[in-house]
Amino acid sequence: MAKFAAALLVLCLVFVAAVQVPQVQATDVYGDCLRGCLKECMKHNGYTFCEMKCDTDCFNKEIEAKLLSLTSKLPNKN
């Protein structure tokens, strides 16, 4: 029974390795935004303020980009 379980596990691993899950082709909206925002903000403000401000702003931009990406894939109802 142990050999059967081991064989089943190996089969599952081979199957998972062989099947490639489609991945969303997305840019790193959040990371790109955060780097630029922190660099610009810290010229005039402290790190804590900039980190909180940029995190919020860039999170919102990332969500907006994801929603636009999803809605562009919806079929037209016209």
Task: Looking at this protein, list some descriptive labels.
single chain; mainly alpha; 72% helix; 3 helices; 78 residues
Description:
The protein has about 80 residues and is an all-alpha fold. It has a domain at about 45-75. Helix content is about 70%, strand content about 0%. The protein contains three helices and no strands. It has helices at about 1-20, 30-40, 45-70. The chain is elongated.
Brief characterization of the structure:
The protein is mostly helical and about 80 residues long. The protein is built from 3 helices and no strands.
SSE topology sketch:
Layout: H1 2-18, H2 29-41, H3 47-72
Helix pairs in contact: 2-3
Pfam family, one: Ole_e_6
Signal peptide: 1-26
Keywords: Signal
Largest beta sheet, briefly?
none
H/E order of the elements? HHH
Name the overall outline. Answer: elongated
Query: Average pLDDT across residues?
Result: 83
Q: What structural class should be given to the helix and strand makeup?
A: mainly alpha
In the predicted model, the low-confidence regions spanning at least 5 consecutive residues are: none
DSSP strand tally? 0
| Straight-line distance between termini | 58 Å
- Count of helical regions: 3
Range of helix content: over 70%
Radius of gyration: 22 Å
Strand content: under 5%
InterPro entries: Pollen_allergen_ole-e-6, Pollen_allergen_ole-e-6_sf
Organism: Dipteronia dyeriana
Keywords: Signal
Pfam families: Ole_e_6 (PF09253)
